């Protein structure tokens, strides 16, 4: 029997991110992955600013950047959003294929000591008072861990075996995807709406194109075979041409079924990524959301394994379920907005007009990039509370930017001139929280999606970069700081 503190089912982007986060915190982790080889096909073609920031916070973004094509727009149902003014160091959509992202995540995770067991499928599970035992098919037969996290994708076996409810709305359309060569390639086209549906022709990488179709008048059995001829027929119905497609590398089907686990944790079993939420890939949010689930969960699970109160794990559901719910809502809205018909054309024109207003553009761009995600961390209502800390320039021993201070995945109490009372109040957490004294010349701090706030005198930053406490007055509220430290990092030692 294989053993590990945490078992992760699925070595996709969510599983790999979570595994790296846990290893960073010193947790022993084993990833069980059904595929014998790394996936070469790529569903996702891009990631947004918040995910870029996360990769930067953990120090592997620089290795990825040469493979990234920067686009200064994102979209809402094919209506362009200007992201170039967002308050982030990455005000662009990073076009990079999923298999490349997974390679970088895998290298980072393995570099931290993550074990990935391939050709290993989770087929059964049993939970008892101290752990979870999984039955495996493939390279091993069984494994046991104190916790099991299902990162095993939209059809998650873990979700089904552990009895999670997965309510939502069924598919109302059929979308097809083919990565092909084209003998008559057009200029790239994105979400072109016609009488019978919509299509896109995208040139992700030299030598081949991605052709995608959506037909709103048919729902195909999700297990039915799909081939190049299905995509060709759909293109002929919608666009009247197939642009001479041939030599397929990958053909796939997806839909707008939108479902979400009603709880993200049942005892010692948790869900993250597509295993917890599925939706139409409108706006390119799924992989991003999964990575962000993982970064929210990793440090909490590590803390609980290290002795923190177990209810910390419940904040994973409390914080991430509403984020997933919002993604489902906005993708449903985007899907219907992409439907054919004159009425929808009129509605799209109205929406496009509204998006022309800076504040409306910023609101949607903040949502699609997830830069505006704010968790309820309590406190006095300071505008920074619950948001991810901005990556402002600082002069500190260990770094020149705030996000660089998060490389070790540990909480940081950033002292920007709060004085001696701060260290004293936090002294009981010195083993778990890094106190960093720094100078900050950036003034004011810009907040997503738009807005600003005076630079604070101190901030308590969780390992996932979200702000848990702020001091901006003359005096440090020691009781408030101790309450925040206790809530997130356990009692003083
Ligand atoms: C056409 C399309 C375009 C998309 N574009 C974007 C985009 O631009 N941006 C974006 O953010 N998202 C996009 N997405 C969504 C994105 O691809 C997914 O959200 C993302 O892959 C989810 O990652 P995951 O790790 O949660 O799940 P997955 O990537 O599905 O990984 C799950 C892993 O678990 C393994 N597994 C499954 N069952 C078992 C088992 N029983 N035992 C062991 N292993 C198992 C699988 O082999 C797989 O490796 C797109 C999706 C589609 C369909």
Automatic annotation (TrEMBL):
Domain FAD-binding: 4-331
Name of the protein in question: 3-(3-hydroxy-phenyl)propionate hydroxylase
Keywords: FAD, Flavoprotein, Oxidoreductase
Keyword Ligase: no
InterPro entries in alphabetical order: FAD-bd, FAD/NAD-bd_sf, RIFMO-like
Gene Ontology MF, one: FAD binding
Natural source organism: Phytomonospora endophytica
EC number(s) given by UniProt: 1.14.13.127
Enzyme class: oxidoreductase
Cofactor(s) needed for function: FAD
A Pfam family the protein falls into: Rng_hyd_C
SUPFAM superfamilies, per database record: FAD/NAD(P)-binding domain (SSF51905)
